[in-house]
Specification:
It contains 7 helices and no strands. It has 130 residues and is mainly α. The protein has one domain: Globin-like (Orthogonal Bundle), CATH 1.10.490.10. Helix 6 runs antiparallel to helix 7. The protein is globular, with a radius of gyration of 14 Å.
């Protein structure tokens, strides 16, 4: 079985860069200006937990076991916080950018393809629920 490159990239980045959450949020807020205002009520601990869930979901190759969780989270984000579908894509692209930057010269076309495929799959799951 081939090793999942998205998962592998998380492993390498954890060793090389440690906690990337501040860099991810900085990139995300720059990419998606309205998101920062939506998250003003959220402290760093909650932001960390949210990003941990994003990491966990991005390491999944199949979302069939996540159906109930995704249904709840997407509905909750839409109704309680007015999260728009494009905000998910912006967050995932921000994460990918930070991962790529952290990998440096190790980032290659295979990682890019693996990440873009995973992002596309995840966004499709979100759009199906929005």
């Amino acid at each position: 079985m081939a090793k999942d490159l998205v998962y592998t990239s998380f492993e390498i980045v954890a060793e090389k860069a440690g906690d990337i959450s501040l860099a991810v949020y900085k990139n995300y807020f720059a990419r998606c200006p309205g998101s920062k205002e939506l998250m003003t009520h959220v402290d760093d601990i909650v932001r960390g937990r949210m990003l941990d869930e994003v990491y966990r979901l991005m390491m999944n190759e199949d979302y069939s076991d996540e159906e109930s969780y995704l249904n709840f989270e997407v509905k909750n984000h839409r109704l309680a916080y007015s999260v728009k579908p494009d905000m998910y894509g912006n967050l995932l692209e921000a994460l990918k950018d930070v991962i790529a930057e952290s990998l440096g010269a190790e980032w290659n076309d295979a990682y890019e393809l693996a990440w873009q495929s995973r992002i596309d799959l995840f966004i499709k799951e979100i759009q199906n629920r929005h």
